[in-house]
Amino acid sequence: MPNLIYGRNAVLEAARAGRVVKVYQASGLGHDPRLEELARLARVEVVPAARVDAMAPGVNQGVAAELKPRRDWTLKQLLDTRPSLLVALDSIMDPQNLGAILRSAEVAGADGAVVPEHRSAPISPAAVKASSGASELLPIARVSGLPSAVAEVKRAGIWCVALDPRGELPAWEFDFTQQVCVVVGGEGTGVQRLVKERCDARVRLPVAGRVASLNASAAAAALLYEVMRQRALRAQTHP
What is the pTM of this model? Predict the structure, then answer.
């Protein structure tokens, strides 16, 4: 079945966003306020648990849903919204990392994400579940190549900042209160050289232990919370 997602949080967020066509719920599930809200928001068919398992192998929590087609955003359309915060994903090949980064981006108040059509995991049911449904709320622009996308973002007057373990600045020394696009690289590869060269700055997350760095999704979450911290502090001091 096309456009299928699973997991209670992911399906509920998609239903809240008005994207669910139909929910398939395994019979015999216990009380859960999320299921009650789902019943109010979408058409629910109770089916044998084996049918849900066949539709969505893995940890599906007894819930799967068919979605309306996802809106396809172009980068120009995303930039036309005058975003304050964007997150660009470079070579994030693992769907769990992809989903986790999209979740952190949405929680941090990002206005959208930029994801390459190649050199990236697809926005699959596993990625949607890992995002806890954030992928259904966050505008996502698919681009043919990230280097050219970074150049286009910069032409729109938005600072592009690469997260790099060898970055020149600690993250807290960069001013994230301005319009900014944060670029996060994949496990092992990091942000590719050409993308880093086109960014305005490279920032690092200093470490105190012996392990050299965080994984991609944890690093993205830490940096995005630094963005939130700076913006909250500025709002308090410049109301």
Answer: 0.84
